[in-house]
Design a protein that fits this description.
heterodimer; A: 183 residues; mainly alpha; 9 helices; B: 747 residues; alpha+beta; five-stranded mixed β-sheet; 23 helices
Chain lengths: 183, 747
């Protein structure tokens, strides 16, 4: 308990996750987990490194998963002003300046998926589909919990795939983008 | 006579031709990253003030010209200098910064309108000068304060405006003094002659040379205006030496001695530069401040006597201290500039860099650089005392990046930070040791066969190699730990367990992971690779760990953001690039384990040095016989890599946790950094497991529980007696219960 207490105190940023997982742990699916028998440590580690035997185990989480309240990413005033400026520069054909301006926004809010989506859109405008794709994936990895941001990232990914003629994958990404908005 | 006439004509022609076509070789100027100011930035007003001081802004009661500021209560009013950035220019302007708590609340312009975001001008951090060492910043006549030419004339050449290039009377006077002294010592040269000497001739003084100099000075005077010649003098003349670098011209001298533009110098400062003209080494204000002060005050007196300034102003200025900056501007960051030079050599010839006046914009963060330098110096001095190694001092290197942009924001190449020599951050190729382990476990997670709770065997290993020898690695403690969960094997850096996992996955897989993350040379695929028998530089280690810190994306580390031509045209931009190199799920699981390294493993000693609520992730590295002590770790906004060792590869007696870790922790604690907190991918679940055994348990059930992320579908064995309240008792549980009941019955 003391160890856990210190651990939790040292990681307030993870508290949200801890709370969520606590909810997940107390959820009904976990009632099933005691059905099996816990493996003794010696049994688990008897042979060469291999995963522990499964029959004595419980799933870490089972469906239906706990759905956390949706997050919503916003741009701060500084990043927002820079994004507006970048749009203006891009509209004026000054692609290089627009990239530099968006990179300023990225340095101010490095974890904001909306900035990465903007960066990816600019790459797509400059016919750099591969970078747009990578930036969409970067945005996706940051957008967990925000369906609107996730949808925008999938949309960017769809467009970048289409730009490279990968139409089937693009349709799939489009579908995911749409599904996120209807939930 | 005809011959002399012909020679003079020839000289005349030469002088005019060369001088008309003159183009000073302009070393590229290198700038740090500009500080972005915006509401919400976590910098207190005193911290902003320090940044202004770094740019040599002057505090004033009334900020009324660029380069001044006033602090009144919670407001900082700044008269900003005009600034040239990589992407745009900003004119001089007034800015009011309102602070509160520990951050900026509001920015407003001269009309009290809100300003969302604004950059301070970038700090000039150095220049790339040619091998003969001539460095300069050329100034136009508009950038020269009127006092400077007036002072030069009063002190060096009173008849400058009227003579024809030479001043025969002054020459005779000097000749007379020199004849009596038996050697050529005293000048008597006009400014024009000094210019000729510096521009056309070597400084060796012989009589024929003197004549040639006089003839050339007259030729120059006949063909060019006095204003032209004065401006040439101001840009040409030698004013100091800084190691290999010769400081030429008042533009650079102003930066070199005072850290600010020439236009902002006051009477006392101008007088000091004019004093230095006579003997940049003899009157060096840093090495011989007393001499320099006497000579400066003499200059002031001469100026007053000549009516250039009032006697009152001169005596007021004479009471001022010299005011030179502690360290010469442009010589702060040799290791960083080294990286900049190497980056640019891929695209530019040496001559472009040393002569074309390029403007180079970098990612250097002077605050982070200062922290890194100080932490390394301080900690190595402390470690030297603890681990007496009489022959030599410990060395070290530090690299700091902003992981998500790939910006390299600080590089320290050794403990003597001002020394432009062996740059360990870029050139020390050392065994990465246990820094390789995260990449082995990442490969394991990606294989789908392992998760944080998977129990692996820490057991003796004896491998027969192809050369017939046996490889028998050991744990650092020389103990064998038996079955341990992956999270513990990584946190405690267990060698045997890790080698077992690595061999199970196969060396090519591990090598591929390393190369995906940016390892340039494919590693030799020998089993010792699994214990980090891979030579990397601290910068290369930073590239590898940057991918872990950046959520599994590889971003090429960059020092240079953009290059502009002398007239401000963009030549090259190094834009942000990202490449996904790991599955988001695997990288999240790994990063959570690297957080536990700091709380439960080899990174634990750092906890006492870090803010209690700062979440960081990291990994220690120790190569065989403690030759290399590494620590690499990150927060949300910074990655710091530290190497400590001896240059001759001698054992240090320091593990990664003992040597590099304290340096790392001090650097991290000194940065204004954010806690690591990536969003958990939706397919993962967070569970608590018993750290020694890896068995799942409800919180509070065993004394040593850790929270790890595992795939939602992972099947985890449950710790006996630590299942969930609603769960049915397990068989061992029943046995336990029965035993307890039996014992109770017996008692």
């Amino acid at each position: 308990m003391t160890v856990l207490g210190r651990h939790a105190a040292a990681i307030p940023a993870l508290t949200a996750v801890l709370v969520l997982s606590a909810c997940a742990l107390s959820g009904p699916p976990l009632a099933r987990q005691g059905a099996g028998t816990a493996a003794a440590p010696s049994a688990a580690g008897s042979a060469t490194p291999f995963p522990a035997p499964a029959e004595a185990a419980a799933p870490a989480a089972a469906p239906p998963p706990y759905v956390p309240p949706p997050k919503q990413f916003h741009l701060g005033a500084a990043a927002s002003a820079l994004v507006t400026q970048a749009h203006r520069q891009a509209a004026g054909g000054d692609y290089g300046q627009a990239v530099a301006t968006l990179e300023r926004a990225q340095r101010i809010e490095p974890d904001n998926p909306l900035v990465w989506i903007e960066l990816g859109r600019l790459q797509l405008d400059a016919n750099n589909g591969a970078q747009a794709d990578a930036m969409a994936r970067k945005a996706l990895s940051l957008a967990t919990g925000d369906p609107a941001a996730q949808s925008a990232a999938w949309q960017l990914l769809a467009d970048s795939l289409r730009a490279r003629g990968r139409n089937a994958e693009a349709a799939d990404a489009d579908h995911r983008a749409a599904a996120l908005l209807t939930h | 006579m005809l011959l002399i006439g012909g020679y003079l004509l020839y000289l005349d022609h030469q002088v005019v031709k060369q001088f008309e076509g003159r183009r000073w070789t302009l070393p590229a100027q290198v700038y740090a990253a500009p500080l972005e100011l915006y509401a919400g930035l976590g910098l207190s007003l005193p911290e902003v003030q320090r940044e202004l001081e770094r740019l040599h802004y002057r505090r004033s009661d009334r900020p009324d010209h660029p380069g001044t500021y006033r602090l009144s209560g919670e407001h900082l009013e700044v008269d900003l200098r005009p600034a040239r950035f990589a992407d745009e220019s900003r004119p001089a302007q007034l800015l009011t910064i309102s602070g509160g708590g520990n951050g900026i609340l509001r920015l407003a312009d001269a009309n009290a309108r809100e300003v969302p975001v604004l950059r301070l001008e970038p700090l000039l951090i150095g220049s790339i000068f040619p091998s003969h060492g001539e460095d300069r910043i050329v100034v136009s006549p508009q950038e020269v304060p009127a006092l400077l030419p007036a002072a030069l004339k009063a002190v060096e050449d009173r008849k400058f405006d009227t003579h024809h290039g030479i001043d025969p009377l002054a020459m005779l006077r000097a000749a007379w003094v020199n004849t009596r002294a038996g050697a050529i010592e005293q000048g008597g040269s006009t400014l024009t002659q000094q210019l000729v000497r510096s521009y056309f001739l070597s400084t060796r003084q012989t009589f024929s040379r003197k004549l040639r100099e006089a003839a050339m000075a007259m030729a120059l005077d006949a063909h060019f205006s006095k204003a032209d010649l004065m401006n040439a003098y101001i840009n040409e003349i030698f004013l100091g030496q800084d190691g290999e670098r010769a400081i030429h011209g008042f533009g650079l001298a102003s930066q070199f001695y005072f850290g600010k533009p020439l236009a902002e110098l006051d009477l006392a400062e101008i007088s000091l530069l004019v004093a230095v003209v006579r003997g940049p080494s003899y009157y060096d204000p840093r090495r011989h401040p007393d001499r320099a002060l006497l000579r400066r005050n003499l200059v002031l007196k001469v100026m007053a006597d000549q009516g250039v300034v009032s006697a009152a102003d001169a005596s007021l200025a004479a009471r001022r201290p010299l005011g030179v900056s502690a360290r010469p501007a442009g010589a702060y960051y040799p290791a960083y500039l080294d990286f900049v030079r190497r980056t640019l050599r891929r695209d530019y010839h040496d001559e472009d860099l040393t002569q074309a006046g390029l403007r180079i914009y970098t990612s250097l963060d002077p605050r982070a650089q200062d922290e890194a330098e100080h932490a390394l110096e301080r900690e190595l001095a402390r470690l030297d005392k603890l681990h007496k190694h009489p022959q030599e001092a410990l060395e070290g290197a530090v690299v700091v990046t902003a992981p998500q942009s790939g910006d390299v924001i600080a590089i320290v190449g050794g403990r003597d930070v001002g020394y432009d020599g062996f740059d360990r951050a870029l050139d020390a190729h050392r065994s990465m040791g246990s820094l390789v382990k995260p990449f082995i476990y990442l490969t394991a997670l990606e294989s789908g066969k392992y998760n944080a709770a998977t129990v692996v065997e820490d057991a003796p290993i004896d491998l027969k190699l192809t050369n017939g020898q046996h490889w028998k690695p050991e744990n650092f403690t020389r103990q064998v730990y038996g079955p341990v969960p992956v999270v513990r094997a990584l946190a405690e850096s267990l060698n045997l367990a890790t080698v077992g996992v690595g061999l199970d996955l196969g060396l090519p897989k591990i090598a591929q992971t390393l190369q995906r993350f940016g390892l340039e040379q494919p590693p030799a695929q020998v089993p010792a690779m699994l214990l980090g028998a891979i030579d990397v530089t601290p910068l290369a280690a930073a590239q590898l760990f940057n991918g872990l810190a950046d959520g599994g994306f590889r971003t090429p580390l960059r020092a240079v953001r953009a290059v502009l031509s002398a007239d401000g045209k963009p030549l090259k931009a190094f834009a942000l690039q990202v490449t996904p190199v790991a599955s988001p799920e695997a990288i999240y699981q790994l990063d959570r384990m690297l957080v536990l390294v700091m709380d439960h493993g080899t990174g634990r000693p750092a906890r006492a040095l870090l803010p209690a609520d700062l979440v960081v992730a990291g990994k220690s590295g120790t190569s065989s016989e403690d030759r290399d002590s590494w620590f690499a770790g990150f927060s949300a906004s910074h990655l710091v890599v530290v190497w400590v060792g001896y240059d001759d590869d001698a054992p240090t007696g320091l593990t990664g946790s003992a040597g590099a870790l304290p340096v790392w922790a001090h650097v991290m604690a000194g940065l204004n950094t954010q806690s690591w907190s990536a969003p958990m991918p939706e397919s993962l679940a967070e569970v608590h497991i018993d750290f020694p055994t890896g068995l799942r348990a409800v919180p509070g059930c065993t004394p040593d529980l850790v929270a790890v992320a595992v795939p939602g579908s992972a099947l985890l064995p449950v710790h006996p007696g630590c299942g969930f309240p609603e769960s049915a008792p397990t068989v061992p549980n029943l046995l336990e219960k029965a035993k307890q009941l039996l014992q109770q019955a017996v008692h």
